[in-house]
TrEMBL record:
InterPro entries: C2H2-ZF_domain-containing (IPR050636), Znf_C2H2_sf (IPR036236), Znf_C2H2_type (IPR013087). Belongs to the krueppel C2H2-type zinc-finger protein family. SUPFAM superfamilies: beta-beta-alpha zinc fingers. One of its GO terms (molecular function) is zinc ion binding. This is C2H2-type domain-containing protein.
């Protein structure tokens, strides 16, 4: 019986190997074929239909009752159904992240182990998943074989194309079982389902905010106490969460463990990768209830909503200045502390913002990424490019009311005004 099963398996799953065995006079179990058999017309053993086949021999479709999708096996259907239910039964013991299937957990664990078993033969770059390697290899060939028939946009994977086409079709296959709301992306459904998880028994005595777990409450309370128990051994910076320290340390190590399979870009944080991937898919799941504008992340939505509310919740304890975004406050505070955490490895110059460092590095590289479409002149700074364009448009924004002269730059206008009252007579009427 075992021999029969093995023979069936090889014939079905490995047809090339089955053909080779027949030619060499074997039956797939290491034994010669029965004497009455021929190489050309082997008689298959009589068997009952497999669980994936009907009595007529046609495959049995395992269909999803939510979206109608069909699968070859019950196990594949079970995994798919978790996209609708939000169930993630496989948990990472190191960071608590959970997954729909065991294989996803195994791939995720490579983030912690650093294992990247798939190597590019062209450039030596290594990846944690074979799919990431395949997509990366297309950056060498320039291949994007999956093209949208509606808008012509092309993608490196069929999965990205499928997600993208939902923009055109309006398809929303992921349904919330609680409120019947529909979504075009499974992760949008996962985000939405948090709304229904109303049980938050842990209360902050300071501000009344509620949380699902005591761990989340403890993390929150540190925003009131200022406690930052996790310290970076490299630079001494401290954090209120161990996960924040882990992400910060990647600044020093240069580690970017989360990789985009579409373009090969890598990120320090998994959430940064998820946000980035929305550039490729066009997904903007967060909507402003006031004006309807949509955003790729809750952070961008919250920042936008402050335009409507006028809220500036981030206050400088030194000078009292307030800001709409915490990142703006962080940069501002460096005026008081003198901190300049971004260093140029070429000349040692340091900067308050990473964007300032990037702009500075163009001095060393000679890079001039801003090109004038009118005269082809190029610039290393956006401000210089912007000022230059006013030469072509004659867009002189600053006008002297004493003498009628106009200027494109505020500093030239201010300098002129200091002398104009003494040297320039008023315009005659």
């Amino acid at each position: 019986m075992e021999e029969v099963k093995l023979h069936q398996h090889i014939e079905k799953v490995h047809p090339e190997e089955h053909s080779r065995i027949l030619k060499s006079g074997g039956n797939g179990a290491g034994n010669p074929l029965p004497p009455n058999s021929t190489h050309q017309h082997p008689t298959p053993p009589k068997t009952l239909p497999s669980p994936t086949q009907s009595h007529t021999g046609t495959p049995v479709a395992h269909t999803c009752s939510q979206c109608g999708k069909s699968f070859k096996s019950k196990s594949l259907l079970t995994i798919h159904e978790r996209t609708h239910t939000g169930e993630r039964p496989y948990h990472c013991s190191l960071c608590g992240n959970s997954f729909k299937c065991k294989s996803h957990l195994m791939v995720h664990q490579r983030v912690h182990t650093g294992e990247r078993p798939y190597h590019c033969s062209q450039c030596g770059k290594s990846f944690s998943q074979s799919s990431c390697l395949k997509s990366h290899q297309q950056t060498h060939t320039g291949e994007s074989p999956f093209q949208c028939s509606q808008c012509g946009k092309s993608f490196t994977t069929a999965a990205y194309l499928r997600i993208h086409t939902r923009i055109h079709t309006g398809e929303r296959p992921y349904h919330c079982s609680q409120c019947e709301k529909k979504f075009s992306h499974s992760n949008s459904l996962t985000v939405h389902q948090q709304i229904h998880k109303v049980e938050r028994p842990y209360h902050c005595l300071k501000c009344g905010k509620t949380f699902r777990s005591p761990t989340h409450l403890v993390h929150h309370q540190r925003t009131h106490t200022g406690e930052r128990p996790y310290h970076c051994s490299q630079c001494g910076k401290s954090f209120n969460r161990s996960s924040s320290l882990t992400v910060h340390q990647r600044i020093h190590t240069g580690e970017h463990p989360y990789q985009c399979s579409q373009c090969g870009k890598s990120f320090k944080h998994s959430s940064s990768l998820r946000k980035h991937q929305r550039i490729h898919t066009g997904e903007r799941p967060y909507h402003c209830p006031t004006c309807g504008k949509s955003f790729t992340s809750t952070t961008h939505l919250n920042n936008h909503q402050r335009i409507h509310t006028g809220e500036r919740p981030f206050h400088c304890s030194t000078c009292g200045k307030s800001f709409k975004q915490s990142s703006s406050l962080t940069v501002h505070q460096r005026i008081h502390t003198g901190e300049r955490p971004y260093h140029c490895d070429q000349c040692g110059k340091s900067f308050k913002q990473s964007s300032s460092l990037r702009t500075h590095q163009q001095i060393h590289t000679g890079e001039r990424p801003y090109h004038c479409p009118t005269c082809s002149k190029s610039f290393s700074h956006w401000n210089a490019f912007n000022s230059h364009q006013q030469i072509h448009t004659e867009d002189y924004l600053f006008h002297c009311f004493q003498c009628g002269k106009s200027f494109s730059k505020s500093n030239a206008f201010n300098e002129h005004q200091q002398n104009c009252t003494e040297e320039c007579p008023p315009l005659s009427s």
